[in-house]
Amino acid sequence: MDLQKIMAKARDIARTTGTITTEQLNGLCPNSMEPDDIAALFAALRTEGIQLKDSDSEK
């Protein structure tokens, strides 16, 4: 899965709350992601204004 597809799914998840959990994000990402790809994904999340949170219970 490429970064654009991951971001599209992350946007869908974050549409109502503006956040995505690390568990949800891990579920979208292949295990074979390179460190540069992970850094690009985090940068894209920041650019989109999507906040990453540790769990569903975090506020």
From TrEMBL:
It comes from the Bacteria. Gene3D superfamilies: Sigma-70 factor, region 1.1. InterPro entries: RNA_pol_sigma_70_r1_1_sf. GO terms for molecular function: sigma factor activity. This is RNA polymerase subunit sigma-70. It comes from Bradyrhizobium quebecense.
